[in-house]
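ugh finaly. both done.
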Amino acid sequence: MNNKNYNTIIIGGGAAGFFAAINLAEQTSNHSIAIVERGKDVLQKVRISGGGRCNVTHAQFEPKPLSLNYPRGEKELLGPFHSFMTGDTISWFQERGIELKIEEDGRMFPVSNSSQTIIDCFISLAQKHHIDILTSNNVASIEKKDLWELHTKTDTFSCDNLVVTAGSSPKVWEMMRKLDHTIVNAVPSLFTFNTVDKQITELAGIALEARVDIPQLKLESQGPLLITHWGFSGPAILKMSAWGARELHKADYQFDLVINWLNYLSHQECLESLFERRKNSKKQVGNEWLFDLPKRLWKYVAESVQLTEKNWADCSNVDLQNLATHLTASTFAINGKSTFKEEFVTAGGVDLKEVNFRSFASKKQENLYLAGEILNIDAITGGFNFQNAWTGGWIIARAISTKKREY
């Protein structure tokens, strides 16, 4: 059985792990570093993020507004973001030859439009700094003696500093529990809503700005909404799924979703517009769509209240009341969820009260550091989860390198 000692070992070959390793190597000399990864490949989430383009970060350049995108971690990340956040991320990649671009919705990608650009950068820098990348090494146990000891099936590794960036791995969470950490149980975050209402799913592909509410859970959201073949998606739904992750889990993903297709327009404002149209139009309701709604959606709503072939002038007050209700408060029974694309994000992990966010060090164990999704931190979609990884990795590297100089 081999035994190899390092100054720092990082469990988890993802975004936070590589960022911590590379920055630590750049800030120290003669500091041996290894990344231990259970899979055959590293940086798999980086590879699939943003449809293979890697959504590196988001164009939000102030710490407080940036922190508001984290349903869990908002308060804890505010301080770290004052040390390393979006602008620092952009500069970091730029200094290493990678330009990022901002898209209309604020998401930021490499100009190459390829996640391979980020992967190649990390791999080449790791090689340059002689960081050992130990793939297919599944850590079976962790022990704290004079040094940290990591046991795999074939090897034992030891180190002064242990950095855990293994994501939402139940096995690693259990190891953290044995090291006296509290684990907040995982529930899914960032998912889409399913419905069996075939009339609405036949409108798949329609996208518009809308307001969505789940009255029974007191959840609400606003933004682009997308009708899909299985139900509802888009930023409005994804934000709601993140902020309401635990409430939605408790409800077993069975609830009523109320949609205001007119976004912020109220029932009364809508009704007044409909009364005005009744006075000034002789056309059929189904042939004269209002409020800039997509034609297919307008016809669906008109059919829902049986007004498609009725002339505006013949509509009663009750007809228009019903139409206004369906336009501003259509209700759909949701019965399940689906993972958003390949992005599987969970709410849960190491309790944030047990971490010192000045260094991302454990309050329970000396020389143990935690970053990324192993912590009970998650964000809405848009590059925010990666920004958390970059910030945590950078601060850990600074903490270890500073400590080393103080010896």
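ok and the 2nd:
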Amino acid sequence: MNNTAHLGGAPAAASTTDPRHDFAQAVALAGRTVAALRPEHYDASTPCPDYSVRDLARHELAVLRRLVAMGRGDDPFALPGLAQDVDVADDAWPTAWEAAARDAVAVWEPSETLTRLLTLPFGTLPGAAVLGVYVTEFTLHTWDLAKATGLSPAWDQELVERALTAMRRAVPAERRGEGVPFGPVVEIAADAPAIDRLAAWAGRTP
């Protein structure tokens, strides 16, 4: 199955509504999940090809730091984006995540960040749409970490449903293959939990 290692390559949840609350919630849940990792988890594989739990946590921290740069109007690609370029000791994750999350939420708080046009590898979008993409990214990668470790994050069902609705609109089932970092939609019961339906839409097997 062709699962993506990260979701920064396509507008998975490009919404024009105000995503700041959902973004803060998704980042907070990701942070609580990272903080709950134990030493035996770090080398476990994840649903993201070639990414261990440690790699995925590093990648997500890199994304947070890039989002701080975006919100400030700086060049986000001047910062490391690959997992191997982020060096955090295993016992330092809560502190590192808390600092980056605090900065990311604060820098996106001004309303003007939502209308600023930002150019990313997958196109030029207003800030609100970009932030919506990362609501989905952090939600899905939190699921990836949970799947890899057996942790049970406390999902916000309404947030997950909004992310799923946006992803279905932005990445329909027939839009898969070259240039789209998601595998084919995985069949799942219509009454399955929202987070499992989101994962299935992204090509993961719940």
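summary for the 2nd one i guess: The mean pLDDT is 87.
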